[in-house]
Amino acid sequence: METPCCYPPTDSDQSHPWLMVSQGMKRHTFYSISENQYFERCVPEFCDKQVAPTSYEWVTLFDHSISPIHCCLFNSESREKIQIPPIELPPESKRHLFYRCILSKPPNDPDCHVLLLPNDNFRLFCRLGDDKFVRRSNTFGDDYFSIATNFNGKLYAWMRRFVGSYSLVEVDFVGQELILKQLVNDNGQPCQISLPTKGCCFNDYLVESCGELLLVNKLSDWRLQKVKHFKISK
C-alpha cells in the first residue's frame, strides 16, 4: 500500500478501469488491473458516502446522514458535481437501502434520465434537472428488476415476471411513466429463461464484453455457500 493522499492515482497510460473497494466510510482501495497493484486513498468527496458506479465516467454519491438523503453525480476526472433530487424514504422503510444508479445518456444530454434501483420493492427515476424523483412501486408482487445497464445508448433490465421466470426488457421514459418493452430473439421468441428455485441462490449481472451485452447468472448452493456454476447468455 502507498501512503494515502487526497485523490485516486492517475496514469495517462491506464488502459483498464480502476476497481474501487470501500473500506468503511473514510478510506477506499483502488486496484489497477494493468499494473496489478493496490493504492489506498482518502477521497474527500467519497468520505461518509455510499458510492454507486454508473456510466459515462460518473459515480453517484449518497449521503445517508441527511434526511431526505442528499445525492449527486460526481465525475472523478473533472471533479464536477451535478445535484440530483433528494430521496424521500417511505414511512414504512425501516432498513438501510443500497441504491444502484443507471444513466440513460451522458449528463450533458438534455434528455438524460437517472434511474435508481434500491434493494426494495420500488424504483425511482427523474429527468436530470427535475426537482424530485418519480417513485414507482412494482405493479405486482413478482414483476421487479434489480439489475439494469446502459448498452449502446439504451437501458436494459433483467426482470422477474413470475417465480423462477425471468426476461430481458428495454427500459424507456415517457413523461412520468417508465415503459418496459419485452425483447425477442431472432426467432421472435421472448428473451427469457427459467432458473431453479429450490436449494439455489443466484446473482445476476448484465455486462458488456467485446461489443455484446451478456447476461451472467451465478448459481450457488445456499446450504454449502459454494458457487455451483455460471450461466452466460448472449
UniProtKB/TrEMBL annotation:
KIB1-4 beta-propeller domain segment(s): 30-234
Pfam assignment, any one: Beta-prop_KIB1-4
Organismal lineage: Eukaryota, Viridiplantae, Streptophyta, Embryophyta, Tracheophyta
Protein name per Swiss-Prot or TrEMBL: KIB1-4 beta-propeller domain-containing protein
